[in-house]
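Regression check, flavin-adenine dinucleotide case 416:
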Amino acid sequence: MRILVLGAGVVGTAAAYYLASDGHEVTVVERHPAVARGTSQSNAGLVSPGDATAWASPAALKTFLRALYNHDLGIKVRLRFDPYFFAWSLRFLRQCTYARLRANTDIKLRLALYSRECINAISADTGIHYDERKKGILYFFRSQQSFDAGTDNYRYLAEHGLPIEIVGRDRLVELEPGLAGARDRIAGGVYSPIDQTGDSSQFTRNLAAYAAEKLGVQFLYGTTVEGLDIEGDQVRAVMTSAGPITGDAVVISMGPESGLLGRRYGIDLPVYPVKGYTATVPLEDESMGPTMGGADEDQLIAYSRLGNRLRLASTAEFTGFDRTHKPSDFAAMFRTGKELFPGAFDENKAELWAGLRPMMPNSVPVIGQARYKNLYLDTGHGHVGWTMACGSGKFLADLVAGREPEIDPQGLVYRN
Ligand SMILES: Cc1cc2nc3c(=O)[nH]c(=O)nc-3n(C[C@H](O)[C@H](O)[C@H](O)COP(=O)(O)OP(=O)(O)OC[C@H]3O[C@@H](n4cnc5c(N)ncnc54)[C@H](O)[C@@H]3O)c2cc1C
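Current build output:
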């Protein structure tokens, strides 16, 4: 089949790789002049089944409501007239029960674990590197109270297949000597040894180059998708800034913009952009900084070590499609970074970035055929799209081929 993949982020590129590996003739349509210029450009770098817990929860409900008036939290809601945001919020609030938290987390964990196998297989099969570190990730807490409360979600993940070790402060510093300078600030944490870190932009670029060279995937850069030409129950063509492009099937992987396109054609695709910030700094000395990825669960800061760079990430902000940033957006992140890794970096050398998580109200991505016979979705990966991209692409390719998927599809397949 001739398949058009709309969007060249990590999700669309992974889908293109698997579809082309199945022998399809794949064209990827991307508005930017290169791959990974959207959310996949500079995320926190965690490939983390350990972060599979869904965002919507009874605790998140309280935080979300507090964020409406307190803008100093890691989660910020800037109220504006946006009916789409209100509709999304209502659906998010409906997911904030204990039962929905567990159900959504089950699906995400299953996909994240599967995706881990897929990214490792891609890397072995293609020889692609991405500043990867397969040493695990540490999720840690500052107070005993938050440690006791916070480990609950990780114990649930452990019961459902994620190997973890609950660690006190001494063991934590033994595992991560980079945190020795912050030892007294930390009560304890959770070590997830199968998690890894890596640069999603580098991965996407290298995978795209491999897919183009070895599998014949065509990338149409600088080409904006403007709409779909629908006839009956089929998409006949994709309307773009370069004119109509026809294909036998179309995959929407446009990250945060997917919902904007989908809802014009009656597809229930409540993807909403949730803004976050990252700063990437060179390490002053190779022996400084973390040796593996981590997350300070009380300060809501995540970090990864990408080669000789440290990437810090923070904030979930509801502010529409605004991708701008200013120095003050990074102040808390740098403060925490310096507490954790004193002397390891100079913030004046940082590359600053803001991006939009393509977030579904239940945090579960949507994959599968949608409304029209030849239209597929692979989008809405939210806060863990780098983690789930490869598994999603493989799962989608199995659905397109009509093959039995390798992963239990329950709860994953998009319902029209
Ligand atoms: C601060 C932050 C930290 C994060 N940290 C992590 C992490 O540690 N681990 C993790 O797993 N995930 C993380 N994420 C989430 C992850 O980055 C995303 O889920 C993932 O990158 C989404 O990939 P995507 O391909 O769906 O979207 P994108 O990367 O945005 O790709 C979509 C592509 O579609 C293109 N496009 C959109 N509209 C059009 C159009 N009209 N025409 C043509 N092209 C179009 C865009 O230009 C873009 O290239 C983080 C996100 C943020 C913001």
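Comparison notes: The chain is about 30% helix and 25% strand. The chain has a mean pLDDT of 95. No diff flagged against the previous build.
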